[in-house]
Amino acid sequence: MSKEHLIKGSGPLLDEKGRLREPGYALRPPFEYSHDRIAAPPFRIKDWDYYLVNDDHFAVALTFSDLGYIGLVSASVLDLRTRTYQTTSELVVAPMGRMGLPSSSDVGDVTWSNERCDVQFLHKPGGRRLSFRMARFDKEDELEVELLLDREPRDSMVICTPWLDSPKAFYYNRKILGMRARGGFRCGALVHEFDEHEALGLLDWGRGVWTYDNVWYWAAAQGHQGEHVVALNLGYGFGDTSAASENMAFVDGVAHKLHRVLFGIPVADDGTYRYLQPWHVTDDEGRLDLTFTPHIDRIDNINVGGVVQSDQHQVFGLFDGWVVLDDGSRLEIHGLRGSAEHIHNRY
After folding, report:
1. Beta bridge partners of 317
2. Can you give the pLDDT at residue 79?
3. In 3-state terms, what secondary structure has residue 37?
4. 340 phi, psi to nearest 5 deg
5. Positive or negative: CA dihedral 303, 306, 308, 311
6. What does residue 117 show for φ and ψ, rounded to 5 degrees?
7. CA-CA distance, 319 to 340, in Å (whole number)?
8. Whole-angstrom Cα distance, residue 113 to residue 133?
9. DSSP state of 68
10. pLDDT tens for residues 200-242?
11. Which end of the chain has a smaller Cβ tally under 10 Å, C or N?
12. Is 81 exposed, middle or buried (0-12, 13-18, 19+ CB in 10 A)?
């Protein structure tokens, strides 16, 4: 079984010099995040909330991020049957922390609007209410999303990651998978109500100061496997993860810690990835063996003056295989819906 540092501390995330006090992982947020302790200018601070809800027919992803010298309000609607998607983003120039993202993933709300968008990510008794509107999402069609996420699982993935070559850079991240999702969306003539017995939601909550040029790999899957809600969070490539990786499997909200993983993306003779061919996802301890069958490669490229650049491949599909849980039992996985991404960011 993996031996990684489980965080036992509490209090401020950063010390007086702006460095991470305790790199490692946790199952609930252990630390207090505050811009006041960050030893970096406002344009280097990265805060974001990313929600995704899916059933077997559609997925909706909502991103609200303040990346310092640029902000991003983005939505994606994916038709999982026809294997098509639409992604539209609104850029905000130089928000420098003014977009109002809360310092906690448990309390605090996002309320933001401009002439095109209206965003409300609210904590309500019993759950999280997401309201999102974007004009001209698909040509002239407006997108409206209303969702309620509840039944938050006992455990989540929390990681505190430094960078070796930049001691005042850090990544504080929480991923909550397998929340019950209710509600739906409308875009033009398309109206979809998520099946509350089938649909699940996740939150990717990130705060930090990064180095300028980064590549990461992240996979998230969630769904019903027989009588159980099963979720996977897998990733690597981002910062110094020697203290802990973000790799976990969840069964009915209980986390099982994994060690290092490799996505096994097929590579062509010319060295380019073949994202829509099956991936072979494995770990270094013989506890994970998955085939990821891609259906949609959601490509999103951003280039703002050569300074802000993002090359994104977020691939949606199905996971099949097995994972060995912490008690040594083997969990078979069949058709677990999720995504796996390879992203190169320079900002």
Report:
1. 294, 338
2. 98
3. helix
4. -140, 135
5. positive
6. -125, 150
7. 10
8. 9
9. S
10. 999 999 999 999 999 999 999 999 999 999 999 999 999 999 9
11. N
12. exposed
Q: What is the DSSP letter of 267?
A: B
Burial 205-219 (b: 16+ CB within 10 A, else e): bbbbbbeeebebbbb
* Contact predicate 141/133, CB 8 Å: no
The pLDDT score that the predictor gives to residue 2 is 59
Return the ∠ at Cα 129 (arms to 124 and 135), rounded to 5°. Answer: 145
Residues of the chain scoring pLDDT < 50: none
Give the max Cα distance, the chain: 54
How far is it, in rounded angstroms, from Cα 185 to Cα 133?
10
Question: What is the predicted pLDDT for the residue at 1?
Answer: 53
b/e per residue 107-129 (b: at least 16 CB within 10 A): eeebebeeeebbbbbebeeebbb
Contact 121, 108 (CB under 8 A): no
The first and second tokens of residue 310, run together, are 């993002």
C-alpha distance from residue 193 to each of 126, 185, 283, 314 (Å) = 20, 7, 37, 24
Q: Which amino acid is at 144?
A: E
* Contact call for residues 188 and 138 (beta carbons, < 8 A): yes
